[in-house]
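pasting for ref
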Amino acid sequence: MESLADDSWLVVAPEPTRDAPEAASPEPFGELFYANADATFEWIREQGIAPDMIGVLGFDDAGTAALYVATERVVGAVVSVGSRGIVRPVKEGARPLVDVVRSLRAPWLGLYGDDDPETPPAEVDALREAAGRSDAPALVVSYEGLAHRPDEPPIETDSVDPETDTSEAAILDARRRIFDWFDTHLR
């Protein structure tokens, strides 16, 4: 997110359900979740940014939440990194992402590490196939040899030789894809 801010993007990092009592939100992606997302989007609109110029970026469970937002709200583009819950819901009361992704209303980019036990390649392939049946543009990218998501560990240098350090090359590629996705769909 710091890289996006450095590139002159307005970056907002809300914790939409952090203060919400558990009992008030029996559905993980229900009324309270969307009310908090709507409040965040309203604040962004007050800064002069139209809904179709809003991008949503989430990592892990926040990546799952970002995909849900892309099916229920008007936003310009969404990126999920290492989002869980592909064939089995991330939480009770949620739907698996292979079902959710078919209802995309915004362009969605999903980034995954092939060696992540929580997002196995067969599940990511099923998500890729389901995303291909949505009406919105969707791209699912897998990175060979990454145990989790393509932003860990943090990159320390921009001079990477992809032939000798594939994980750092994947980090650079993922970062480039995130910027390109937002540049293509939001600017």
